[in-house]
Amino acid sequence: MDSAPLRRPTDITLPMDTFMIPILRHSCPSGLTLLLSVFLSLALFACNDDQGNGTITGTDAATLTVNPTQLNFEQVAIDDSIAELIVIENTGAATLTVDTFQIQGENASAFSLAEGTPSSLRLAPSELAEIYVEYAPTAIAASSGVLNMRSNDPSRQSFNVELRADAPSPQIFTPEIVTFARTPEGSEDWRITEIANIGYAPLEISSIVLDGHSDFSITYPQPTGEEEEGQFPDRANDTTVAPDVILPGKSVMVRVIFLPTSSDFRTAEITIESNDEASPRTKVLISANSDAPCLEVDEEINFGQASIDNIARRTVTITNCSAIAELVIGKIEFEDDAGVFDVAESSLPGNLSTDGVANIGPRQSANFVLTYAPLEEVLNEGVLKITSNDAARQNTYVDVIGQGSLLTCPNARARARVQGTSRWFDASEGIVASPLATIELDGSLSDDPDGTQVTYEWSLRDKPLSAQTQISPSITSESPTLWLPYAGRYVVELTVYDGAGLTSCEPSELFIDVVPGGDIWVELAWEMPTGAGTDLDLHYLHTQNADGWNDSNWDVYWSNRSPSWGDGSTVSLDHDDTCWTWPCGGPENVNHDDAVAGSYAVGVYYFPGTSDGDYPTDAIINIYLGGTLAQTFERRMSNQEEFWHVADIGIPEFSVTTVDELTDRMPGR
């Protein structure tokens, strides 16, 4: 009579590498063999860990754990390289052996293992190893492949890490506007602007066209190696031939020449057509004799793909590009909205929500919010109309587009911390920092409910008036930085896109308040002509002890940055903009803490040593007392060696007395 087949208990898992029961070829096992099999089965059941539900969790197998399982490389220039880390860990109970590392794939030639990568690994339980994969493109093409590894993990004897990199692409950058101050009829003036390729592939220029008033013309300065960086005072080497290609990291200069035939307001624009897919047509606005109000706004607001049954939001910034006149906004409304776009009335600046107006001061900005609620999977288009007192365009039109999608929109989650600290702040918290600090931004907590990887788009929505700063190194980085040169509020916004191009319904906003410490904080900024190096120096004088400005101990300036006054106070010039190369314009600041009773004076000197010539320059002084802005002063300085005695500060009254005296030379020199 045949014996019944030997069966294991239902919930018992027997690791195959623990022992093996020989397969018997006889149809009827002997009694000794049957007895031995039952004995070994019961012994294994007793020795393994039982969790109480009949499941045995103990194992002697090695377990391969790899993180991450997909590498997405950032763009780099051709013949440059970037490396990404893979961590391999043995999370099992036996020694893990990984005996093969091989990059595979038809389009994987740009990937390689870093020099020094071992040919195999042998990892004890809980031990880990690091492997670096390098990406070095040699052509303008996307790359993809896998890193294959083989191991003794029974469930992962062959395992692939996906490798992906988009094709290197060009990215055009140029200042959005070139402005000329009021220029007398018949007098010629010029400004230098630039067209830069901040991408990773050659920027091919199809055309550069100047349209607008005939009082403007453009040429292209050719470097000789003798001029200072970014400055081309000699026009003998200019050409009228536009560049064909701009290599990654390079730029070309454009000289905009203004020869007015009258004192009337003049405008023009430069249109640059290139192979930058994100901005195939880039415009640079030109304005002159701009005592009149001047409105600047994006020509297009693109919501991208937005989720149906959700409301997407976009912040729009209006800037008054006049240095003198006030811009008055009379109305912001959709002329054509397709029934899905709207203006969030609660976000409108000034009294626009109650049929009033919004007043925007010189060089200042205001924000408002547009919403998009798509109803179906179609492309929606609208036209936003902004009415203002800008004489050049009293009605400004902005194209608004969006694409409805059935997918779920990704979630933008921004956070930030002050560089050198460990505390992260998210969008629900305000961040406080000191002037001259650097903020680390991070969007890695953003996600897509549909499971695709998100990409990032950062924008600096608001900043102090004089702050010449930008998000670096790229607005598309996962973790960029932002330098905070001046006191005031900075607003950073993060928008993310999923793998299908669907945009986040809500951008994530970070509010950063930069508050100076100490008793007295004085900061200087200046607006200088494009293409001219104009150097201003901040002076802070202890008037009761000093013999005069430039005193070797009692005047704080670039040559006497941290004097010891012996009164228990601490005073220093923390930042000096030397202006050896254009652009410059600050910041410069003096910080005075534990100030004792006395009188202190603030002055500004138009330094000749590093200034190109006598250019009209608008200087701005902010005085903070106890961390609060006490007063702002502005003055146009026109000639080298001019000195502006701005104000006097009294302690312990914490008072500011306006002086506002401009002299041809520094007093006493």
From TrEMBL:
<dbReference type="Pfam" id="PF22352">
    <property type="entry name" value="K319L-like_PKD"/>
</dbReference>
<dbReference type="InterPro" id="IPR013783">
    <property type="entry name" value="Ig-like_fold"/>
</dbReference>
<protein>
    <submittedName>
        <fullName>Choice-of-anchor D domain-containing protein</fullName>
    </submittedName>
</protein>
<dbReference type="Pfam" id="PF22073">
    <property type="entry name" value="Cep192_D4"/>
</dbReference>
<dbReference type="InterPro" id="IPR035986">
    <property type="entry name" value="PKD_dom_sf"/>
</dbReference>
<dbReference type="InterPro" id="IPR054090">
    <property type="entry name" value="Cep192_Spd-2-like_dom"/>
</dbReference>
<feature type="domain" description="Cep192/Spd-2-like">
    <location>
        <begin position="63"/>
        <end position="163"/>
    </location>
</feature>
